Amino acid sequence: METKLTVRDQILDHAITLMMLRGYNGFSYRDLSELVGVKTSSIHYYFPSKDDLVLEAVRQYSDEVMAGLRSVDATLSAEAKLAAYTKMFGKTLGDGDQICLCGMLAADIESLPDSVREAVQAFFRANEAWLAKVLAAGAAEGTLVVNGSAESAARTLFAALQGSVLASRLFHTKSRLKDVEATWRKRAA
Amino acid sequence: METKLTVRDQILDHAITLMMLRGYNGFSYRDLSELVGVKTSSIHYYFPSKDDLVLEAVRQYSDEVMAGLRSVDATLSAEAKLAAYTKMFGKTLGDGDQICLCGMLAADIESLPDSVREAVQAFFRANEAWLAKVLAAGAAEGTLVVNGSAESAARTLFAALQGSVLASRLFHTKSRLKDVEATWRKRAA
DNA sequence: GTCTATAAACGGATAGAC
DNA sequence: GTCTATCCGTTTATAGAC
């Protein structure tokens, strides 16, 4: 029994998926208008400017991802947590043609206002912090390979995951995310 | 004593830097027109469609990067070669607002024709193959950490470098590339 | 080769009726 | 809230003069 989404929520959801597909400069109010079934002027009613829309999209996307992180079973091993995280990242690929919204907006960042840059930075930092904890635990467990500080390794790991979804889509394969996970596991796959 | 560039070459050079800044959907023939000092119709004379222009841009950019790889001293240690490669990658940042053209086009790939996708794929494969050789040599030398196959590690390393330039620009810092290099060096920084 | 002129569609955004 | 109507600049692209 699914609750009906408000028009505002439909706009936001479609904006997120369109940006994950084609980026900030690759979709228009007209695209949204056709997908949601309202006129472009109605979209301006909810989101006066495109920048307003993007900022709200990043906030909603971040909230969803953060909720996903909190839902990871805290009793799992570090190795299993990393596997769960990689799997979550793979899900963003959708039908194989989407990448992480914040990775995409990082590519488009020079076309965007500072407010969006700050929101995307916050997303990066939160994910890196979460991964740093997992890597530190994995090093203590002896299941994950951490060369250097956990923080530095976590930044590298997150960058590798962002780069991997990009490559996965480019090559039409999901295997590239597995390469990343294997690189941090002690017993290499 | 610099040789004067042809109009065609000027267009191509500016197209490359503009795309490294704002992506495929973030620049126009008008932008190029103003930078080069010719009318947009003259640009269409050299590159009938925008897709033609992008394909030529990727080819020129790839040729330049491949020449850069060949210019790396073959007698260097694997560790030093990785450092040289990371430095090259850092140079693409320019004034801190540009990323690798092929990383950017990988983000924009769903707006582009297959011909461009294939050219970007070839760029990825060539870089990954070069890095795989360096990692294999580094593992033999005992200076680089390679967990799993050199090929899998090379794909991860390349993805991490692409993700790192993205993050470097996002955060206005060049330090994130150093994180990546440190992660693969045996004596962590 | 480069220009002027123009086409035809698309872009984000607003005013005002209902 | 949603619509119609409209503004006005932008975008890719073409025709044809020079």
Structure, described:
The structure is a homodimer of 189-residue chains. With 189 residues, chain A is mainly alpha-helical. The first copy, chain A, has a single domain (7-184), classed as Tetracycline Repressor, domain 2 (Orthogonal Bundle). The first copy, chain A, has nine helices and no strands. The first copy, chain A, has helices at residues 7-22, 29-36, 40-46, 50-70, 78-91, 101-107, 114-141, 150-171, 175-184. In chain A, α4 runs parallel beside α7, α6 packs across α7 (114-141) and α7 (114-141) packs across α8. The termini of chain A are far apart. At the A-B interface, α6, α7, α8 and α9 of A face α6, α7, α8 and α9 of B. Chain A binds a DNA duplex (18 and 18 nucleotides) through residues 7, 28-30, 38-42, 44-46, 48-50.
Quaternary structure classification: homodimer
SSE ordering of chain A: HHHHHHHHH
Q: Which protein chains make the most extensive interface, counting residues with beta carbons within 8 Å of the other chain's beta carbons?
A: A-B, 50 and 50 residues
Main sheet: strands, sense, barrel of chain A: none
Radius of gyration computed on alpha carbons of chain A: 18 Å
What fraction, in percent, of the residue positions of chain A are helical?
over 70%
In CATH, the homologous superfamily of chain A goes by the name Tetracycline Repressor, domain 2
CATH-scheme architecture of chain A: Orthogonal Bundle
* Low-pLDDT regions of chain A: none
Give the mean pLDDT of chain A: 96
- The rounded distance between the terminal residues' Cα atoms of chain A is 41 Å
Beta-strand residue fraction of chain A? under 5%
What shape does the CA trace of chain A take?
elongated
Q: How many domains of chain A, as an integer?
A: 1
What's the CATH topology name of chain A? Tetracycline Repressor, domain 2
Beta-strand segment tally of chain A = 0
* Helix/strand/pairing category of chain A: mainly alpha
The number of helical elements of chain A comes to 9
- At the first level of CATH, the class of chain A is Mainly Alpha
